[in-house]
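Incident log, structure service

09:12 report received: a user says their structure output differs between two submissions of the same chain.
09:20 pulled the input from the user's history:
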Amino acid sequence: MCVAVDGVPRSARLDLLPLRAGHADEMARVLSDPALHTFIGGRPETLDELRARYRRVLAGSPDPAVSWLTWVLRLRDEGCLTGYVQATLSPGAVGPEAEIAWVVGTPWQGRGLAGEAARALTGRLVSRGVRTVVAYIHPDHHASASVARACGLAPTGLWQDGERRWQRDVPDGVPQTA
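09:34 re-ran on a clean worker, output below:
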């Protein structure tokens, strides 16, 4: 369940804070483990690279029909950032569509934080009228498949860059609750 306190989306243990450029310093440490890139590819970004990426993200999509939304995850009990969730919103065939993703730093994995954050994100999006939620997941990334299932997504037969498309459709008349 996702609730907002003072405008900040919250789950049981996490505050979802809108991304700011200043988050790069702490997030560079959160995202520094090369093991995080096993399924998503690449390597950890340097602090300067992460700052530049955050500036690009915060500037917004060059396509006016597309919105980029990113929240960093603050674990309230520990008072630290632990990862992020993001959504790319675009017009879809039956209404607004969101492609979502989540990353939790290695020290905080295995505690259910990714699922908690992704459910909060999905609930927030659906409550705001998103009709289709999708995620692309590497076929060997079983933890992310579990997170997708927890968000109500199911695997489809579609693939992109070696990742399976998971999808949740919100039919007409379904209560839009977070």
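09:41 both user submissions now match this output. Likely a transient worker issue. Closing.
09:42 reviewer note: The two ends are 6 Å apart (CA to CA). The beta strands are 3-5, 8-10, 14-18, 67-75, 80-91, 96-104, 132-137, 154-160, 163-169.
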